Amino acid sequence: MLLARLLIRFQQDVGSVEEVGLLCAHESAVSPEQLSEMQVMAGLAKSLLPPALSEAYTIQQLVHYLCIFKCNNYNICNEDMVSIGIGLYPAASVFNHSCRPNVGVVFSGRSVMLKALRPLQKGEELCISYIELGRNRASRRKDLKEGFNFDCECSLCSDGTLDSALSVDHTKHEALMNQLEALTEQALSLKQNSELKKSLEMFLKIAKQLREISPPIGYELLSTYDSIVQLSLQLQDWTTAKEYLILSTPICEKIYADISPNLGLHYYTLGKLSWFMEDDQRAYQYLLKAHNILDKIYPSTSNRLQTLNNLLNEVQAYRKKTINQSG
Hints:
By secondary structure, the chain is mainly α. It is built from 15 helices and six strands.
């Protein structure tokens, strides 16, 4: 358990106690239900500690640390941005959240790195994103409130203009959106039960209906398109996967920063699939875009970056050979 491990580290490194103690806890925002759960977890942590160390902390103190963890834990992601664990990084936790971040978080093993997502101005506050950004304001705020105990008032959420332009008008289309949300739950349930083909068919129907009421570049479309791509790849339906990767590209370009792991990996997947389907022109176009982003973010030792560079070199060599032969 992370709490017990951290308390043992406190015993070995007094400085780490001060580092963690300075982090925000937002304890007053914790609901009674969450507080009750934390008290149970604190009791479990005490039972896992050596007796002398357990007696050094009260349940209330441990609940306070749990609140700190809740607000400051990082999802440790692999190079494909898939969460593989959680960790506490006090130095990195001093960065505030923004739904329009200027700094990205990348992991190399268990080490965390912070990378600028665009050119920075002198005196500009450095902000990261605590959550996945490919969703509308209501969904982002809900996740931040439940996961980090605060109401987001970043520039994107406070303004709301861009979000409105990228979202379905739920007031105008309330009945249909409720229906589509129910269908989405059914499609996800089918996926969890390994009924992938039926799930894909349902998501394709959802996408068709969404396109009738959504802006061409919209959050709801991106979420649905992403589900279609993942299912198509699992079913080896390359044509459908490529089609919906292309459809989601302008949405990703609008939502994510110019230098973002999410956008770079999107380009990489589209380029790799295009190469597999013998579309060398599109493969080169998107692999080059992926390289221009991920080369700025990932360390040179990254397996993903090395694989990307090898694939890009292969495509370049093929295109050069083809041009020479045609000439």
